[in-house]
Design brief:
The chain has 191 residues and is of the alpha/beta class. Helices cover 39% and strands 24% of the residues.
Length: 191
């Protein structure tokens, strides 16, 4: 059984850590050894946050090196491009179409790059870019982008949605469980 390497990338406050914890909760129940590493940037100020999730028969290290990620799950377009060097040849990028302006854009020092998903696709990278923010809002909160993206990932990889619902019951506060389950189902329905 090969080791699967997943990078979850976004900016502070988008829920990358919860997404990695949900994956980390379900995979051992499927018989996998799992290692998770959380790398916090300037997460308190909307900076880049990345988590590594590795699973397989026996995983010795939680770290993913450049060119090793089977999947990158990106919560924001610029973060998707920032971490592309970690995607292996033949890997898959799953990204939100959402744009969150970094500080240089906010201050007017530069402009947000245009047409990033198209440029990524033109570079020969297998990309699924979808408007998960709309789905999260449909579920009840823009903060549910993380769980919508997990639904997209679960559908793509054949992971059991029942296990995610069980993980939500364990890891999410009761008042947010229904919203997160709806967000996951909406992501799972993306084609």
């Amino acid at each position: 059984m090969k080791t699967t390497n997943i990078m979850i990338v976004g900016v502070g406050g988008q829920g990358t850590l919860l997404a990695s914890r949900l994956l980390g909760h379900i995979l051992p129940g499927m018989g996998y050894d799992v290692k998770i590493s959380e790398v916090h940037g300037m997460s308190q100020r909307g900076g880049s946050v990345v988590t590594f999730v590795r699973y397989g028969e026996k995983v010795s290290s939680p770290i993913i090196e450049k060119g090793e990620a089977d999947y990158i799950i990106a919560f924001e377009q610029l973060e998707a491009t920032r971490w592309l060097s970690y995607l292996k040849k033949g890997g898959k990028l799953i990204t939100s179409s959402q744009k969150i302006d970094p500080m240089p854009v906010i201050t007017g020092a530069c402009a947000y790059p245009e047409a990033l998903p198209e440029k990524i696709k033109d570079a020969g990278i297998d990309i699924l870019c979808t408007d998960v923010l709309s789905l999260a809002e449909q579920a009840g909160s823009s903060k549910a982008v993380n769980v919508v993206l997990l639904g997209v990932f679960a559908k793509m990889t054949g992971l059991d949605p029942v296990l995610f619902n069980e993980a939500i019951d364990v890891l999410v506060k009761e008042k947010f469980r229904s919203l997160n389950k709806t967000a996951f189902e909406l992501g799972y329905s993306v084609k």
